[in-house]
Amino acid sequence: MGADDPRDLLARSSLLNAVSDSGLDALGSVQRAVTGKANADAEARAVRQEADQKERAAVQAGIEADRAYRAAVADEAAAQRHSAELLDRKQALDTEFAEAQQALAVLEGQRRDYTTWQARKQAEQAAAQAGPPASSPAGPRPAPVRTQSSAGVVAPTSGVITSTYGPRWGVIHYGLDIANSIGTPIVSVSDGVVISSGPASGFGLWVRVRHDTGIVTVYGHINESLVSVGQRVSAGQQIATMGNRGQSTGPHLHLEVQKNGSKIDPLFWLRANGVYL
């Protein structure tokens, strides 16, 4: 059969048609695959972009939250500092007010004592001009009758205040000095028990009383002690006489008040307990 045989041509034509259809199918599959991949890539990029945006938003939110936290911490610290400054200022003002009250009490007491001293001096001068009183038997000077305050406290003696609690001559003077003549009665300021009676460095002689309230009082530079250790005494009971013993600049009572082991202002303590010298 020759090359131009119609049957041969027909067979070749059929073969070509088959090959052509198969190629077209393969080409279509490839095109569909390419298109699908492109679509998948586009979707993946969109998802990635959205994820990146969310991540950036989360990072920014974290930065803003951290900034807000730091600002809140700074505001709180500033508020605490301001509160501490206000508290310090209040304490300073309270201290200044207490000191002013104490100074006022001292001034009022000194003015009152000066007035009393003037009146006593005038009375003494009047008595001296009137002549000596009738003779009377010699004996110890009696302790004056003293009225207790509502707190059960009395004045320790009579006289003129010559020095108060505070700085004096470059040191702290821890007592209240009340001057009068030697032999002037000294009494216990309130109920208590004698814990010291006798010689004392600096004071010459002293008496110390621990009171029922826990307060301890010291009576220094005395001329004579009239009580013994362990003896119970009552408010206003005479315990000593005023003297000029020890490191003293003249006849006077040196009164100290101790609270919980610390020395406090005796005049302020007396004022606080209703006693005005």
From TrEMBL:
GO MF assignments: metalloendopeptidase activity
Keywords: Coiled coil
Record carries keyword Manganese: no
Coiled coil listed as a keyword: yes
SUPFAM superfamilies for this protein: Duplicated hybrid motif
Residue ranges of every copy of the M23ase beta-sheet core domain listed in the record: 172-266
Domain of life the protein comes from: Bacteria
Region of interest called Disordered, as start-end residue ranges on this chain: 119-153
Pfam families: Peptidase_M23
Comp. bias (Low complexity): 119-138
Coiled coil regions, renumbered to chain: 83-110
Protein name (Swiss-Prot/TrEMBL): M23 family metallopeptidase
Annotated source species: Prauserella cavernicola
